[in-house]
Amino acid sequence: MELTWYDSNSWLIEMGGQRILLDPWLVGDLTFGDTPWLFRGFRSQPPEIPTNIDLILLSQGLEDHAHPPTLKELNKSWPVLGSPKAAEVATDLGYEQVHPLPHQQKFVLNDRVEILALPGSPIGPTLVENAYVLTDLQTGTKLYYEPHGFHSSQLQDLGPIDVVLTPVIGINILGFIPVLNGQKTTLELCRTVHPQAIVPTSGAAELSYGGLLTKVLRLDGDLDQFRQSLGSKGIQATLLEPQVGVPLTIPLDVPQAAVG
To answer: Which residues contact 242 (CB under 8 A, 6 or more apart)?
Structure first.
């Protein structure tokens, strides 16, 4: 398994011989509802857009996951799999193959990777977006992704998950209202699914943010604190630190029986 981080929640996942582009924000600014005065994300140097993509995977319909400027630039013939709200965005932008994936449903990509949708982040009072468990059907290795740190209790029924891709640093508004859950929920997740590796997402390495909302956002924790908490709780998982644009090979112990 190899992961390449494009900052924020944008990733290229390579597993089972498939190339999956996850929640891509690769070009242009990030705003919500075209209100840059409230919130604007921008990058000084856009990354090179990856090619030969087997699937675009979208967890949410919000702009930081289904980013319209990026989706307008990508190949419309690439298949898209997403939450029902994200699928609406891709359909409106003219993608030829769009597959909505409600909670508890599965999609199999080219007979190589199974993708299960689980409840993820609550967006407003009535909408819960998607988390995903991806399984390499040859080796049985699994990756779990949830970008806001909201983890379904259904994970306890899925057995060990090798890699978790989720925030380990929280973000809140003035110390009261969580925007991203971080250390606490990720530690609970580790006790539930016993991962071999933890890869943090939702960070900002080369991105900059502006607007009124950024003045009330606060970080909760850091990587060193989280690593210490893993040790104090007796959790054996390895915390990996990705670098933007640099492929990260995930070291995994795969039973020989699984690979034949």
So the answer is: 3, 4, 5, 199, 200, 248
pLDDT digits (tens, 9 = 90+) for 202-234: 888 888 888 988 888 877 878 888 899 898 888
Phi, psi of 134 (to 5 degrees): -105, 130
Give the residue from 102, 162, 108 showing the smallest Cα distance to 128.
102
Beta bridge partners of 197: 163, 238
Going by C-alpha positions, the residue among 78, 74, 152, 150 that lies closest to residue 109 is 78
| Overall residue count recorded for the chain in this entry | 260
- What's the rounded Cα separation, in Å, for the pair 137 and 132? 15
Interatomic CA distance for residues 30 and 209, integer angstroms:
9
Give, as one character, the DSSP assignment of residue 258.
Answer: H
d(CA 131, CA 162): 16
User: Residue 59: exposed, middle, or buried by beta-carbon count in 10 A (0-12, 13-18, 19+)?
Assistant: buried
Rounded Cα distance between 183 and 205, Å, is 19
Distance CA 240, CA 167 (A): 12
Low-confidence spans in the chain with pLDDT less than 70: 176, 254-260
| Contact present, 152 and 166 (Cβ < 8 Å) | no
Between the alpha carbon of residue 115 and those of residues 67, 71, 92, 133, 246, the distances in Å are 21, 21, 23, 6, 25
Note the pTM of the prediction, 2 decimals.
0.93
Is the Cα torsion angle 98, 104, 109, 113 positive or negative in sign? positive
